[in-house]
Specification:
The protein is of the alpha/beta class. It is built from 7 helices and 12 strands. The strands form 2 sheets. Strands 8-7-6-9-10-11-12 form a 7-stranded parallel beta sheet, with helices on both faces. A 5-stranded parallel beta sheet has the order 2-1-3-4-5, covered by helices on one side.
C-alpha cells in the first residue's frame, strides 16, 4: 500500500472529496453517481468513503458477486454501523468509523434538551396576555445526569454537565479500568436509571442493546425521569416508553432518533406534549464536513504509509 496512489470512491460529498483529492498520496478520487447503489463499486476502487442513508438500507442479504475485490479500506462517516449490512464487516476490507467526530455537537444538543426540560422552555413562552404567569422553574444544579455509554460522546456530555453543576454517573459496556474525574461509575444500567433525573442514551445499537430500554428498566427508573436518546431508536421499546410517560412514571423524553425514521403519520409521539422529537440532527454542525475530512485525512496519512488506522470497527462487537 505504501507509496501507491489509491483509487478512492467518495460518497461523502464535495467538501470531503476536494480535501481528499489534495492529499500528498495523489489519490484518484471518483465521485458517487446519483442512482447508483453504494455497494456497486467501479473497477479498481481501493478505498470507499461512505455513509448511511444513501441506499445501504436496501442492501441484499448476501454480498453481491465480486464484492470487495481489490477493496482494502472502508471509511464510514457515522459512528454506528447498524445501518450497513452485516457482510460489510465480514473479513476484508478494513472498516473504520467516525468515532467522536460529532461528539461536541451531540453534547451541545443534550445540554440544550436538559435545559429546555428543566426550564420548561415551551411552557413558559407567552403567546397572549392571558398566558402571563409566574412559575418556579427547574435547575440543573444538584440533579443527576446518567450516561448510558461513556465513549467520546459521553465524555463531551459529562464535561458540559459538570460545568452546570450536575452530578454525573455513567455505565460503560467495556467496564471501568480507572477513575474518570467527576464521573461516578455504575455497574448496571438499572441502578443508573434509578438514580438519575436525566438519562442519556449514547451507546451503539447491537444485538445485545436492542430494546434495552424497555418496560422493566422504565419501571425501575427514578420517578420523573427525563430520557434523552441521541443514539439509535431501536435501543428503546417505544410502546413501553409511551406507556411509562402516560402513567406518569417517566416525565418526558427528548428523542433525536426513532424506529423507524421517520415515524409513520399519526404516531402518538408526534402529538404527545411530554415528547420532543427532532429529525436525527444532533450530530450536525457547520464544521461537520471539515471535522470529518480531518479525520479521514489522518487515516489516509496512515494508510499511505502502511501504518495502523484509527477507529477500526470491531467486527465481533459491531462498533
Amino acid at each position: 500500500m505504501a507509496g501507491r496512489s489509491p483509487i478512492i470512491l467518495n460518497q461523502l460529498g464535495p467538501v470531503v472529496g476536494e480535501r481528499i483529492a489534495a492529499h500528498p498520496s495523489r489519490p484518484t478520487v471518483l465521485e458517487h453517481q446519483a442512482g447508483r447503489m453504494p455497494w456497486d463499486l467501479p473497477a479498481g476502487v481501493e478505498v470507499l468513503l461512505t455513509r448511511p442513508l444513501i441506499g445501504w438500507e436496501g442492501a441484499p442479504d448476501l454480498p453481491p458477486p465480486g464484492w470487495g475485490e481489490g477493496l482494502r479500506w472502508i471509511q464510514s462517516a457515522s459512528t454506528g454501523m447498524d445501518f450497513y449490512p452485516p457482510w460489510l464487516l465480514d473479513g476484508a476490507p478494513l472498516v473504520t468509523c467516525a468515532r467522536g467526530v460529532s461528539a461536541v455537537a451531540i453534547a451541545d444538543y443534550v445540554i440544550t434538551a436538559i435545559l429546555a426540560f428543566e426550564k420548561r422552555w415551551d411552557a413558559i413562552r407567552l403567546r397572549r396576555p392571558e398566558d402571563w404567569r409566574r412559575e418556579t422553574l427547574g435547575s440543573l444544579s444538584g440533579k443527576r445526569l446518567g450516561l448510558a455509554g461513556f465513549g467520546a460522546i459521553g465524555r463531551a456530555v459529562a464535561e458540559r454537565a459538570l460545568a452546570f453543576g450536575l452530578n454525573v454517573g455513567a455505565v460503560r459496556r467495556s467496564g471501568w479500568v480507572g477513575p474518570e474525574p467527576g464521573v461516578e461509575p455504575f455497574g448496571r444500567l438499572e441502578d443508573l436509571a434509578a438514580a438519575s433525573d436525566h438519562l442519556v442514551l449514547a451507546m451503539p445499537l447491537t444485538a445485545a442493546t436492542r430494546g434495552l430500554v424497555g418496560a422493566d428498566l422504565l419501571a425501575r427508573s427514578k420517578p420523573g425521569l427525563h430520557l434523552v436518546n441521541v443514539a439509535r431508536g431501536a435501543l428503546v421499546d417505544q410502546a413501553a416508553l409511551l406507556a411509562a410517560i402516560e402513567s406518569g412514571r417517566i416525565a418526558g423524553a427528548t428523542l433525536d432518533v426513532t424506529d423507524p425514521e421517520p415515524l409513520p403519520a399519526g404516531h402518538p409521539f408526534y402529538r404527545h406534549p411530554a415528547i420532543r422529537l427532532t429529525p436525527h440532527v444532533s450530530w450536525s454542525a457547520p464544521d461537520f464536513d471539515r471535522r470529518l475530512a480531518d479525520r479521514i485525512l489522518a487515516n489516509l496519512d496512515a494508510y499511505a504509509c502502511g501504518e495502523p488506522l484509527r477507529d477500526v470497527v470491531n467486527a465481533d462487537t459491531g462498533y
